[in-house]
Amino acid sequence: MLFRSILVCAAIVSAGAAHAQGGIDRGLPLNADGAIRIYNTVGSVRVTGWNRDSVAVRGKVGEGNSFHFGGSRTGVKMFVEGRSERNPAPATLEVMVPARSKVWVKTASADIEVSGVLGSLDLYVVGGSITVNGNPADINAESIDGAVKVVGSPGWVRAKSASGDVTLDGSSADVVLSTVSGKINADGSGYERAKFESVTGSIRFAGSLRRGGLVNFDTHSGSIEVGLSPGTGADFDIVSIAGSITNRLTSARPVKGRYGRGSELVMSSAEGGTRVAIRSFKGPVVLRRIE
After folding, report:
1. Which residues, in sequence order, are CB contacts of 252 under 8 Å at separation 6+?
2. Torsion angle in degrees (nearest 10) through CA of 188, 189, 191, 196
3. Could you give the 3-state DSSP secondary structure of residue 121?
4. CA atoms within 13 A on the CB side of 159
């Protein structure tokens, strides 16, 4: 027993700080609901959930970089440290984690890809993109200049970008998507509580809404297009200060704004069911039916 304990401790210590210029292939035990923290400056990070109580990492850290890796069964941390902060060499990490674990990833300009994780995701990148495939419990994803794309049915989503596009393809009961100048695209079914916000970027929604929900669309000068599946009920409250409102769902037509400016439209489709509020300063608003 003593000899086995010495071997385990030695393995963890040896994994603590590795200086590598070539490939890496490391692993550590981790509880099924443990936490993983990953930091990489430049390159890419790919995280995949699997049905094992362990973490495995493979990849290349680049010339002049150092790879550090260590932790316990409750939490594991890994990061790439570059010799040059201004021009670090790209590092490529492929990380296998327990499917129900909690994953935190932060990069500067490295792209992040996650698939098969059912736990919580907290993802942040400055100049790269973020792509998530699967059904995690919750997602918090932010990219300053890159795109954010989620494909699946997470329970809770917060995704935003300054200039990149934000996309959700699937379904979720609680959603907030926001961007400044990028596009917002949301497709799928079962949206209950959702908020879509942009400044100059366009917003496009196509899918169905859960009865009794609340959905908000808000933009300054971007266009808003809302497409509903047949039979989807919604109670609309639409206000546009300087933009147009086009209704292809029902025969209702917009009227002049309450203060003599812009136009408004209050109506129900398919016996209502979900409250939909749309606010635009000068961007056009279009309602349509999905065939």
Report:
1. 265, 267
2. 20
3. strand
4. 33
